[in-house]
């Protein structure tokens, strides 16, 4: 399934009837089973319904870092992002990708 950023934003956990999605490097993961983390009030709720690549690479929860942009990330941050992607692949199903 393909999602625009706007469509992806509808899967942010605020509508109980919809799953919760987080994208990494454009791949959309269904993180609904991690609702306590990604749902409203969760430690990582700011990532829900968004591509959180930059924030995950920087290990940041700052709203301005929740972005698909990898521009300016260090090699260490790219490796951190790749580690997150591997963790997500092992835990959550891929349901689509983000398109512009």
TrEMBL record:
The family this protein is said to belong to: Belongs to the cytochrome b5 family. MAPR subfamily.
PANTHER family from the UniProt entry: CALCUTTA CUP-RELATED, MEMBRANE-ASSOCIATED PROGESTERONE RECEPTOR COMPONENT-RELATED
The protein's name: Cytochrome b5 heme-binding domain-containing protein
Molecular-function annotations in GO: steroid binding
Residue stretches making up the Cytochrome b5 heme-binding domain: 3-99
Alphabetical list of SUPFAM superfamilies matching this protein: Cytochrome b5-like heme/steroid binding domain (SSF55856)
Domain of life: Eukaryota
Keywords: Lipid-binding, Steroid-binding
GO CC aspect terms: endomembrane system; membrane
Transmembrane segments: none
